[in-house]
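WARN retry 2 of 3 for item q-0093 after timeout on previous attempt; input resubmitted unchanged.
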Amino acid sequence: MRNRPPTGRRRLALALSALLGGSALIALPTTAGAADGGVAVQYRTSASGATADQSEPWLKVRNTGSASVQLSQVKIRYYFKADSASTTYRFACSWAVKGCANITGTFGTLANPTATADRYLEIGFTSSAGTLASGADTGDMQLRFYQANWQPLNQADDYSFSGAQTSYADWSKVTAQLAGATVWGTAPAGNDPTDPTDPTDPTDPPGGGQSLFDDFSYASYSDPAISAHGWNVRSNSGGPGVPGANWDPSKVTFPTVSGNKVMNLETSTAGTAESTKQTEVVSKSTKFKNGTYAARVKFADAPQSGPDGDHLVQTFFTINDLKAPMADDYAEYDFEYLPNGGWGESGNILYTTSWETYNPDPWQAVNQHTESRQSYAGWHDLVLTIDNSSIKYYIDGQLFGTHDAQYLPERPMSINFNQWLIDLTGQTSTTSRAYNEQVDYVLHVKDQVLSPAQVSAKVAAYRTAGTAFVDEVPAS
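OK item q-0093 returned
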């Protein structure tokens, strides 16, 4: 996030951003052992063709025992034949009664390949999925997987697939483990899931779909949980913004708004550099690259009190460091709202900008941007997706801009929010005024492109489960 307009006018400084269903099982109150009971898996598919863009193993898990089962102790395997030895697959959850955020999917390679199976998709549950009471089932888990290059896949030779299975029924061609012991189904010959030689798929290692979610439920900027959860509330000097201004961590607060905690970034000034206090919250890790980024942000057109008109920038962005002028491995992706203009603009303007590189002095920039000249005051759902072909920006569920593959990131980045003043020329009064930018949540899903509706569903699932924070994204 630099002190520059997306159109290329000079900025002054740089800132660092599936499912279970029927066999006899008795479970202990908190932990179920295989000897004590079992679960049954039911299956159906909505992608019934022998050839399909993606496979859709929809599953339910049913507790057939007399006591509850911890879903986090359950693992389901769906077996299939890879279309080629080098094919990489991706997992997705379209919808689930238990919430997609509480379902995991990873791929593995069978130790003893057969004519109908050499891979499997393993479905698990997080601890937030809770327990399954005796006789209860998980409800729908609408799961899918596809080739990473989105080429059609052949399901006709997949062990666990049946195109005729269009209604839920017990299905023994998927297996279920409970507390590490197989309690349901029959695996392809020689491939019991408890076989210790069963390795992880080397062509599709765990890494896709891990998420960062933060509801910003903190007590104050000095709450130890903020740092423990990987955030830095900035206090060091430097750009962007007014030279000589302060970055004041105490101006980052966590009020309750409509019964929900939010992060509030306050920026204030009395018309001088010394009186200007700006705010920024940055992830300490630069481990975010392809995938989905989302935040719900409240922009403001006017200060809480005092004269309006300051050239304010309110942001949500990702960034890595510029190692040298015009370095080709630099990356930055911005949502920037200017309520009072700036950088030559006289009124409201929202920019989304994808950066390839730049030179700070003399100013030279390589970027692509989309803009909209209108007020964006109020709450907005901001979604950014990055895959191997493009960068897409969405605002309130609508596609705002698509940027070219030239601007794809080459290195991981941090996640950032900040609010700052471009200069002090928009309003020259020495009367104090303060502006607020608020953030409801932030979400990143590694290596998966989610639609805005899927983002909303994932966030709702976290909140329904009472999950205020999770970070499964591995270090880069």
